[in-house]
Write a structure and sequence with these properties.
By secondary structure, the protein is mostly helical. The chain has 3 helices and no strands. Helix 1 packs antiparallel against helix 2 and helix 2 (45-73) runs antiparallel to helix 3 (79-101). The termini are far apart.
Amino acid sequence: MQIVRPTAQGDIRYGFLALHIAGGQVGLPIIILTFILSKNVHRHPTLINFCITWSISSIAYCLLYVFILFRSFHPFPHSLQAYTAARRLNMMVPQRVFASLKLP
């Protein structure tokens, strides 16, 4: 059995970023707006909270990716930006777990 590996690490990163943008920043807001604005589609508020939580998480990971790209061009990123990105990601884990466990 042969293991297929990507040619470069950048291929995985661009795919990861594309999935986060397509799903979390385009797809989920469309679903959330459909839930909120449609008169025929009624969903439990916990499901809307779940979708909003994952959308915020996607934005946090994309911002971290931008900081990583910035670091590759500028060797010394601002410590406040790095600290903010780390705190945002640490906040997202309990928030996603709580939103997932509260689903009916």
